[in-house]
Design a protein that fits this description.
CATH superfamily of the largest domain: SPOUT methyltransferase, trefoil knot domain
Largest sheet: 7 strands, parallel
Strand content: 25-35%
Number of domains: 2
Number of strands: 12
CATH architecture of the largest domain: 3-Layer(aba) Sandwich
Order of helices and strands: EEHEEEEHEHEEHEEHEH
Structural class: alpha/beta
Radius of gyration: 20 Å
Length: 233
């Protein structure tokens, strides 16, 4: 089935309403007709199998005949915080792939070696929405506002597991991670071009982050982020 997005406030127990951009895509691009069946996700973890009713000028109502909770969602809630990249198109790519991998929250991060003026939160949120539908997820990742490294590290006190990618096998570094219990919240930090400074690594370790060594080859930021997410998932 094709996937479409409908916010929770337009969904009831028996039906839902599709309008706006999703309606335009459904009708004018996909050429949907009354009686067609589609899958709708609410961005909060629930998927609905829907049979379309009469298509009106600007909206269509769909009758819900099947509901699935946590549809295609991983058992953990992973937050990925990444230093903003010099090339904004690479962060676009990162947002798409992190969404496909099941990341719950994406935090663009300002570190000692980032160029924060490239942060484009609205654009990245739209990319996450498109990637959610493309890969068949039901939870829409939140792309937060640009945040300082220190704030991200210190606000992660309640996370069940905390990791920071590092290019050196320093004391305490681990090559992989163990499986987590369902519902565990996990946060992973990945640096920008040039990596984290020694001071940033020390601060993260002080706050309970475990360094993750990804091997001898120097990985680009977007590659390292994908590797870390895949290892944790």
């Amino acid at each position: 089935m094709d996937y479409f997005y409908c916010p929770p406030d337009k969904i009831s127990s028996a039906s839902l309403t599709i309008d706006g951009e999703e309606f335009a895509h459904l009708v004018h691009v996909m050429r949907a007709k009354e009686g067609d069946e589609i899958r709708v996700v609410d961005g909060k973890g629930t998927a609905y199998d829907v049979r379309l009713g009469e298509i009106r000028k600007k909206m269509v109502e769909g009758m819900i005949y099947h509901v699935e909770r946590d549809h295609h969602e991983p058992p953990i809630a992973l937050t990925l915080a990444v230093g903003v990249l010099k090339n904004p198109s690479k962060f676009d790519f990162l947002v798409e792939k992190a969404t496909e991998l099941g990341v719950r929250t994406i935090i663009p991060m300002a570190t000692s070696r980032t160029l924060p003026h490239h942060a484009k939160g609205d654009r990245w949120q739209k990319l996450a929405l498109a990637a959610m539908k493309q890969c068949g997820r039901s939870y829409l990742p939140e792309v937060r506002e640009l945040s300082a490294f220190e704030d991200v590290v210190r606000s992660a006190a309640d996370a069940g597991a905390k990791f920071i990618a590092h290019e050196q096998p320093i004391d305490g570094a681990v090559m992989g991670v163990s499986p987590f219990r369902k519902g565990t919240s996990v946060i992973a930090l990945v640096g920008p071009e040039g990596g984290f400074t020694d001071e940033e690594i020390l601060l993260a370790k002080k706050e309970g982050f475990v360094p993750v060594y990804l091997g001898e080859r120097r990985l680009r930021t977007e590659t390292a982020a994908i590797v870390v997410c895949a290892a944790i998932m």
